[in-house]
Structure formats: structure tokens, C-alpha cells
Amino acid sequence: MDVKCQCGHIAFQTPTATPITVYHCHCTECRVQSASAFGTSAIFPSAGFLPLSEDLRSRLKVWTRPSKDGVVIDCYFCERCGCRIMGIDRYPDGRIDETVCFKGGVIKGLKYEGAWHMWTKSAVVKIPEGAVQWEEQPPDE
């Protein structure tokens, strides 16, 4: 799938043709980052994508933030337009996650059917009836 920021300075293919999962996060961090009611992300395997190529790394900036559970999230964005591209989790023991989390809006043709919802206890919009959802972080995330 094609990934592209607003200005086109960042453009590449996702590591696989389809994501492992797509989710809408209703936490306050994602709401602020997306300037919307929730943030949409698509999870892909990181194999073959990480470590980032030197060319891609040179065009990205990174903002790092801690999560509630001690994981550090490296949030990558375009150096020119500021568009958030992806997040990569780093664990306290130094491991890097086996997945990469791309922001949904930068992926051309991303399908939202079956997307699940997390951090719904912070939701400011109604969650669709029958949607897979968790009040906080889903298990194994």
C-alpha cells in the first residue's frame, strides 16, 4: 500500500500488502495528535521495514513520548509538512516492537471495515453497535 504525507516529501510502500489490523483509538493523546475525535492507525509487521533506511530516516523527524505502561513511542513525522507518519514502540529492555503503527490517513486505499476501537472510555463519539472495542488498551497490545 502507498504511504504519502501531505506534501509528498515522504512516500514509500507498507511492509506488506495489507495491515495486520486497523483501529480507532479514542485516548486523549490520539485525539490531540489527530485534532479529531479519535486517531486511526494500521498495524503492519516491521520485518523488512525496520531499521529505517538512511534515506527515509533523513527525511523524518521524531518526537518521543512515554506510554502508560513504560513503553517509549517514537512518533515519526515529515520534516517539511509535519504530517504524522508512524509510531514505533521501544520496550524498557531495549527491544523494538515487531510491528509498526502507521497513521491511517497517510495510507492510500486503507480499508476501515472491521476496524476495532480502543480507549473507548475516553470516546467523545458513539462507537458503532457491534464494533470490537475495549475500554482501554486491548490485550496483547
From TrEMBL:
SUPFAM superfamilies: Mss4-like. One of its GO terms (molecular function) is carbon-sulfur lyase activity. InterPro entries: CENP-V/GFA, Mss4-like_sf. The keyword Transcription does not apply. Keywords: Lyase, Metal-binding, Zinc. Residues 1-113 form the CENP-V/GFA domain. The keyword Repeat does not apply. It comes from the Eukaryota. Belongs to the Gfa family. This is CENP-V/GFA domain-containing protein. It comes from Cryoendolithus antarcticus.
